[in-house]
Design brief:
The complex is a heterodimer of chains A (388) and B (159).
Chain A lengths: L3 H4 L2 H5 L4 H9 L6 E2 L11 H12 L12 H15 L5 H4 E4 L1 H13 L5 E6 L5 H7 L3 E6 L10 H7 L4 E6 L12 H11 L5 E5 L24 E6 L12 E4 L2 H14 L5 H13 L1 H25 L11 E2 L10 H12 L1 E2 L1 E2 L11 E4 L4 H17 L1
Parallel strand pairs in A: 1-10, 3-4, 3-5, 5-6, 6-7
Antiparallel strand pairs in A: 2-8, 7-8, 9-12, 11-12
Chain B lengths: L2 H9 L5 H8 L3 H13 L20 E9 L8 H8 L4 E6 L6 E7 L2 H12 L5 E8 L5 E2 L2 E2 L13
Antiparallel strand pairs in B: 1-3, 1-4, 2-3, 5-6
The chains are: A alpha/beta (388), B alpha+beta (159).
């Protein structure tokens, strides 16, 4: 008999499963649950974008594209980055179309990390950074952000986390799960620390279109930062295109040149149908983005006020589509709170500790749901909280 | 004028002023006042529910009637339109460009009822030159709402 424990990679085996997944699986075993758990839009991909995908299939465009992606798509991405964030990238050399933002993060890590290199990961944040860094041989260094700082990176704490081994800083803003953003002025302070180092910033800007208190500022647009920044983004959140699996990287050519090799050998090219749809999205999708953004904004206010009126304290989210309330005052751990809420009141939210250090005592609530659905969930949360 | 309130109500008339106030970050008094004003000046014409009667098993028939008219002196088509919209079975009356003048949507219990409306009420009007009645066989979408059952939300099942 083969002993699988002897053949499997130790690093992979020791990597825990996603804590979000754990709660989903639990929720899916029950009926009549009102969940506010998912991290994807409830909108369908706008019809004209879907049509562009369908048309590409009808015309038989079922081939591989260039490794880095269709040149028209790379041009559109480059135009978009210039138009929205004032950064110019050469489409032929500085843009790679990836399989979602996730692949973008993965190839960025794999192209840079040498065994033992440190990767600073601010938490609470999306679950993939530390596991992917570790699988690349890196050592994640957790930088806890705090409720009292509105979950932003504190420059002093960042300074303290930097060592001679620091290779990368992950900048996950607008943030999942906290809804925090970093303003231009706050990014300037981070830039000031990094400017004279060899530290590369991996800026995960997948929620860049979803900010509510001002336009998103990309760290790459700050003086001296473009040369040390990898922007990872994608179509999933802004255009409601999660299932199309399409993202991109914008970075200096010496970096993309190496990342492209990993993409070339591991992926070949991103899904062609999705690439054609994405061209349409970038060309004619601004109105769709605005419509969805405005709807999320209304829901954001609705859920923030709803929680407040129940007596649950939350940081008012400024980006993404999550709110991260403080549930620590109810005398239960985050997991206990969420489990009881699920079992006794059939409402599912995700415990904050699934998103790393600093998440204990909080919970992630997604507002990518209709107002009716959110209202129902709030009623259940209220009934639960009153019973405590 | 606040078109945001109109857009919200157009999409869901059951939103309460309190909910709208939170969503738009306005005082609830202001929302109430604006809705009252929009109702008073006729911008908000009314509130109705979209019902798929097919699902109830209750028989009903809808038809779209194209009507050609000779315009009346001074009044144009207004008099006829007015006469028509006063019938409770008439759901909508539109003045159209193109090959005919009025488009009249009518709803009746039976085909016979619709037929008698056309032959006895509509075609007897003096200025009506001709009519063409098209019966609706199935409604897929009306007033922006799709008649199929909503799809089950499968998000979160897989990832």
């Amino acid at each position: 008999m083969i002993d699988y424990s002897k053949v499997l990679s130790k690093t992979v085996v020791e990597t825990p499963k996603s804590g979000i997944r754990k709660f989903f699986d639990l929720m899916n075993t029950m009926s009549d649950v009102v969940g506010l758990t998912v991290g994807e839009p409830d909108f369908q991909t706008p019809w004209h974008i879907r049509e562009a995908g369908i048309e590409s299939l009808e015309k038989g465009r079922t081939y591989y594209t260039a490794n880095a992606g269709l040149s028209e798509l790379r041009s559109e991405i480059s135009n978009y980055m210039a138009r929205r964030f004032g950064i110019s990238y050469v489409p032929e050399k500085e843009v790679i179309v990836t399989v979602g933002g996730s692949e973008a993060i993965d190839i960025a890590f794999r192209s840079l990390i040498e065994p033992g290199d440190e990767v600073i990961v601010p938490t609470p944040s999306f679950v993939c950074y530390a596991p992917l860094a570790r699988m690349s041989g890196g050592v994640p260094v957790i930088l806890e952000t705090k409720f009292e700082n509105n979950f932003k990176i504190d420059p002093e704490a960042l300074k303290a986390a930097i060592t001679p081994k620091t290779k990368l800083l992950v900048l996950p803003y607008p943030n999942n799960p906290t809804g925090a953003i970093m303003t231009k002025a706050e990014l300037e302070e981070i830039a000031e620390i990094l400017r004279d180092t060899n530290i590369i910033v991996l800026s995960d800007e997948i929620y860049a279109e979803l900010t509510y208190t001002g336009d998103h500022c990309s760290v790459a647009s700050i003086e001296g930062m473009k040369e040390r920044t990898i922007v990872a983004s994608g179509f999933s959140k802004a255009y409601a295109m999660t299932g199309w699996r399409l993202g991109y990287i914008c970075a200096p050519a010496p970096l993309t040149e190496q990342m492209l090799k990993i993409h070339q050998y591991g992926i070949m090219s991103s899904p062609t149908t999705s690439q054609f749809a994405a061209i349409e999205a970038l060309k004619n999708g601004d109105e769709d983005i605005k419509m969805m953004h405005d709807e999320y904004n209304r829901r954001r206010r609705y859920i923030y006020n709803g929680l407040k009126s129940i007596g649950i304290e939350a940081f008012e989210p400024e980006g993404a589509f999550y709110i991260f309330p403080n549930i620590g005052s109810f005398g239960l751990s985050g997991e206990e709170f969420c489990s009881k809420l699920l079992y006794d009141y059939k409402c599912a939210i995700v415990p904050g500790n699934a998103f790393g250090a600093g998440g204990e005592g909080f919970a992630r609530i997604s507002y990518a749901y209709s107002i009716k659905h959110i209202t129902q969930a709030l009623e259940r949360i209220e009934a639960f909280v009153k019973s405590l | 004028m606040n078109t945001e309130i109109l857009k919200l109500l157009e999409n869901d008339a059951r939103l309460t002023p309190a909910q709208i106030a939170i969503m738009l970050d306005m005082p609830v008094e202001a929302v109430n006042a604006q809705i009252a004003e929009l109702e008073a000046n006729g911008t908000v014409v009314g509130y109705k529910t979209i019902i798929d009667w097919e699902k109830t098993g209750i028989e009903s028939v809808s038809a779209m009637i194209e009507v050609k008219l000779t315009p009346q002196k001074d009044k144009g088509f207004d008099r006829v339109a007015e006469k028509l919209y006063n019938y409770p079975e008439v759901q909508s009356v539109y003045l159209m460009s193109g090959a005919y003048d009025l488009s009249v949507m009518i709803e009746g219990k039976t085909m016979k009822e619709v037929a008698s409306f056309v032959s006895q009420k509509l075609s007897t009007i003096d200025s009506v030159i001709s009519t063409a009645t098209h019966f609706v066989l199935h409604k897929y979408k009306d007033k922006g709402m799709v008649y199929d059952l909503p799809e089950i939300d499968e998000r979160g099942t897989f990832n």
